UniProtKB/TrEMBL annotation:
It holds the Pfam family Glycos_transf_2. This is Glycosyltransferase. It comes from Aminobacter carboxidus. PANTHER family: GLYCOSYLTRANSFERASE (PTHR43685), GLYCOSYLTRANSFERASE 2-LIKE DOMAIN-CONTAINING PROTEIN (PTHR43685:SF2). Residues 7-106 form the Glycosyltransferase 2-like domain.
């Protein structure tokens, strides 16, 4: 491959405040041949701001959808419009750290490769841009399906850190060989579903713990908003994965765990939606429809009632919430 092999795709909606930084971070990387932005029917100036971020190199393409279709549709559209052999995902309110792709694409033996993520509050972005990021040894490991799915089962009381947050580089030829694309029915967990299906196909997914991606934590981020129906569709995506032939018993077990984990979230949210719309009697009618519904509702409501008590004494992680955190723990890089 040549020195410029990466296409960065950015699905954007109402990202006028952040997309300049995202695009600039991609265009600064010498390995980037293309940056394709798909404005998913924004109601702000996202399209105009994205076009204004052009550095004159001819590498930026900005497309616009007149009807909101969701991140999966936008990403599939960007992939179809691009040509570079490597595809990289970037959210519109995040950015790359300098030198990211030199570390990533320099690895051997992968179809998908991802690095560590630093999560920062919006107010701390300037500190990260100035270089205050811990450097970890790469410590490359290969991710398998069971480990990946298990790494997406969140635990209450801990800050979210699912492996579905990973923003990898993927080989276009691998996606084409296995007929892989983003599930356009999903507006939540679309990354998880794609990576899990790829691993089920036997692709090589390499992780390195050095950090090259900054995820900006914003209270109004679209990634933090989802409908109750989105949870149901994500649980159904696990059922689709379970229908794949050739899965090992351990892979099936962890997929069922993830499906139940997401389905229970849906059941609780649906109960609360019904309570708001129809009152307690209507919500209880749903809860008693099945033992699974009732268990999810009872456990979920009990946890919600206990949450204020737990938060009276913040954990060490919560006490340090203002500081940056990393998706994966790592060992400090030795000085060179």
């Amino acid at each position: 491959m040549s020195g410029s092999d990466v296409c960065v795709i950015i699905a954007a909606r109402n990202a006028a405040e952040t997309i300049t930084t995202a695009i600039a971070s991609a265009l600064l990387e010498p390995e980037v041949a293309e940056v394709v932005v798909v404005d998913d029917a924004s109601t702000d100036a996202t399209e105009a701001v994205a076009r204004a971020a052009d550095d004159g190199s001819g590498r930026l393409l900005v497309l616009r959808l007149d009807v909101n279709r969701g991140p999966s549709f936008a990403r599939n559209m960007a992939i179809r419009q691009s040509r570079a052999p490597l595809i990289s995902i970037l959210d519109a309110d995040d950015f790359f750290l300098p030198g990211r792709f030199a570390k990533l694409v320099g690895c051997d033996g992968w179809d998908i490769v991802a690095d560590n993520i630093i999560f920062v509050e919006h107010a701390s972005v300037r500190d990260v841009l100035s270089g205050s990021v811990a450097q970890f040894d790469a410590d490359p490991t290969e991710l398998d399906l069971a480990g990946f799915v298990a790494g997406n089962i969140s635990r209450r009381g801990t800050r979210r850190g699912e492996l579905g947050f990973l923003k990898p580089v993927m080989r276009r030829a691998m996606l084409a060989e296995h007929g892989l694309h983003y599930d356009e029915q999903l507006r939540l967990g679309e990354d998880y579903a794609l990576y899990a299906r790829a691993l089920a196909c036997g692709v090589r997914f390499k992780l390195i713990r050095s950090c090259g991606y900054c995820a900006v934590v914003r209270p109004n981020s679209l990634s933090g908003q989802h409908r109750t129906e989105d949870l149901k569709r994500l649980a159904d995506a696990d059922l689709d994965l379970l229908a794949l032939p050739g899965l090992a018993a351990g892979q099936r077990r962890v997929l069922r765990r993830h499906e139940r984990h997401v389905r229970d979230k849906y059941r609780l949210r649906h109960f609360l939606d019904l309570k708001a719309a129809k009152g307690l009697a209507g919500a209880l009618a749903f809860a008693v429809t099945s033992a699974a519904n009732l268990a999810a509702v009872v456990e979920g409501v009990a946890r919600d009632k206990l949450e204020p008590l737990r938060r009276r004494r913040p954990s060490a992680m919560e006490a340090g919430a203002a500081s940056a955190r990393y998706l994966m723990a790592g060992s400090a890089a030795k000085s060179r």
